[in-house]
Amino acid sequence: MSVIVLAGTIGAGKSSLTALLANHLGSQAFYESVEENEVLPLFYQDPEQYAFLLQIYFLNKRFANIKKAMQEDNNVLDRSIYEDSLLFHLNADLGRANDIEVSVYDELLHNMMEELPYAAYKKHPDLLVHIKVSFATMLERIEKRGRPYEQLEFDPTLYNYYKELNRRYDSWFENYHHSPKIQIDGDQLNFVENPQAAYQVLAMVDKKLAEIREG
Ligand SMILES: Nc1ncnc2c1ncn2[C@@H]1O[C@H](COP(=O)(O)OP(=O)(O)O)[C@@H](O)[C@H]1O
Ligand SMILES: Nc1nc2c(ncn2[C@H]2C[C@H](O)[C@@H](COP(=O)(O)O)O2)c(=O)[nH]1
Predict the structure, then answer these.
(1) Origin, by domain of life (predicted)?
(2) Probe ligand 1: pick from 21, 132, 141, max atoms within 8 Å of CB?
(3) 3-state SS of the chain: helix, strand, coil percent to 5?
(4) Residue 179, CB-side half-sphere exposure with 13 Å CA sphere
(5) R_g over Cα of the chain
């Protein structure tokens, strides 16, 4: 049973590549809970008040998705559970969660990971595909997608939040060792509008999956 997970900062192209990859592999795509997420707009309005609640919301949804995705081969998950932790710790460092909330979250995450139904032989994805984008591309894509509460006009302090998040992703990816991993250059490869770029990205993933299967 193989599970592939997409990673990358906000607007990197995870949802777009999740769709492309699941279609290519003939498997199911599992998306983040965004449109129906009633906490997300509240978080962007008042991060101090809602950072912890949003984190618990995402943890719950992410865990449910992981359990479903693990039931069939080659399913694709839009963002890893490890990145939620990265996002939460950034928010905590910005004073939006206190030490008790951080330790409750960290322990809950650990306990939930232990309880994954297939945890006896597999606790982690089979492949992590990280889409790396520059800060400029990140801002462009967030604007292009146009979720109102994510726009810099909505809250100019988001500029520094996004900049720091994008910076932290580099060391996060370097230090990620839970599974095999590959990195896609999301600045150069326009896999959304350019079929050749899409073909190139899918070929990279196929090659890595074949290597993993050969052991
Ligand atoms: N490689 C790419 N080249 C050009 N546009 C892209 C690329 N990846 C994503 N986009 C566009 O950027 C926006 C954000 O993409 P999305 O897949 O929603 O990102 P994420 O799920 O990582 O937040 C969308 O408008 C999408 O069409
Ligand atoms: N504070 C947190 N925000 C999170 C987390 N997971 C996702 N998100 C936010 C970031 C975006 O505004 C939105 C969807 O993310 P995309 O990268 O798919 O655009 O949700 C989290 O764990 N904590």
Answers:
(1) Bacteria
(2) 141
(3) 55, 10, 35
(4) 24
(5) 17
Q: Cα separation of 34 and 28, whole Å?
A: 18
13 lines ligand 1 (CB under 6 A): yes
Residue (of 77, 84, 85) closest to 128 by Cα position:
77
**Best probe residue, ligand 2, of 14, 30, 32, 62 (max atoms within 8 Å of C-beta):** 32
CA 130 remoteness from chain centre: 9
Closest CA to 210 of 127, 118, 131: 127
pLDDT tens digits, 87-124: 999 999 999 999 999 999 999 999 998 887 664 456 78
User: For residues 95 and 83, what is the distance between their CA atoms, to the nearest angstrom?
Assistant: 19
The residue with tokens 């995402």 is 58
3-class SS at 130?
A: strand
Query: Structure tokens of 141?
Result: 């894509």
Tokens of residue 186, six digits: 């999301």
At residue 149, φ and ψ (nearest 5 deg) are -70, -10
Report the run of H or E that residue 30 belongs to, with start and end: strand 29-30
Spatial separation of the C-alpha atoms in residues 198 and 191, rounded to whole Å: 4
Q: Is 46 a catalytic residue?
A: no
Predicted TM-score (pTM) of the model is 0.96
Give the strands of the sheet with 3-7, arranged side by side.
29-30, 75-78, 3-7, 127-132, 181-185
- Using DSSP's 3-state secondary structure scheme, residue 11 falls into coil
